[in-house]
# Entry
Amino acid sequence: MSAERVVVTGASGMLGSHLVRRLLDTGHRVHGVDLLPAVHTHPDLTHSQGDIRDGALLDRVLADSAAVVHCAAALPSYPAEMIRSIIVDGTRAVLDAARRVEVPRVVHISSTAVYGLPRLVPTPEEHPRVPVDPYTRAKVEAELLVERHRADGLCVPVLRPKTFLGPGRMGLFAMLFEWAEEGRNFPVLGRGDVRVQMFAVEDLVDAVLIVLAAPDDVAGDTYNLGAAEFGTLREDFQAVLDAAGRGGRVVGLPAGPALAALAALERSGLSPVYGRLLHKLRADSYVSIDKARERLCFKPRFANRDAILGTYRWWRENRHATAAGGGRTSREPWRQGALSLAKIFF
# Structure
């Protein structure tokens, strides 16, 4: 597929911009779609600034493309109605347009969030999808749309990555990086000894390129993706504090009172931390990547620690340019709200 044209939705986002660059580097022609302007310039790159829910725009952009990679999405911190509109209506629009103009393959970027808060770890692809909030409900509904189009013959690989990190990633990670740079301690719930798998964006881009090139019978399936090597939250966060070199330590907080306080702040709109994240950080959270290893021959190159330290190094070099922002995309730091006041205790 090296000379063929690939459309990337959400092309100016954190994942989309990394994918666009890699596709260009490997000889593809790329057309990006995003509400924001293009991040890159290149002779083989074109870009449409617009909404993925605009069917006429999609018909025009998707015509004569070999594949679409649907990266555009909402963040869990968005209002519920916006989450559903962007994720569900956006996915429906992309799939319907692909069908109308006969695009042979649509790569759908989903999330392990579809499992909700699974007790079974490592979590396999066959685990029931149990949505627990507006974000997970929208992600599940989008996958159901994908499955209907698959049943009608469209090749739609579904990739379910864990939370992915890399250059350009901000969100709540910016809080960890900022506190580390200031020499503050960083709190975790309980002892921080839960194992939470993450994922390097470079590895996710690898997986996208693999399913773009794979035969239909291999590509048209659903795959969990995550780091093969990962430690505890305490270990991964302490690695950042150590890299800062300012003496910060990971500090455990009593889980019950901390959860109650954070939940109250979330309800009042004074904290960006959302409920599912709070509960996810209380128990081990990792998925099986055996299927991707066996069927796609996928091998993650980066451990959790590699991904988080690489993101931190990027942040240190670019923090002044990225200090502003309201967390509306994963490329912006989330407003810490009342959590910024908690720094005086750490």
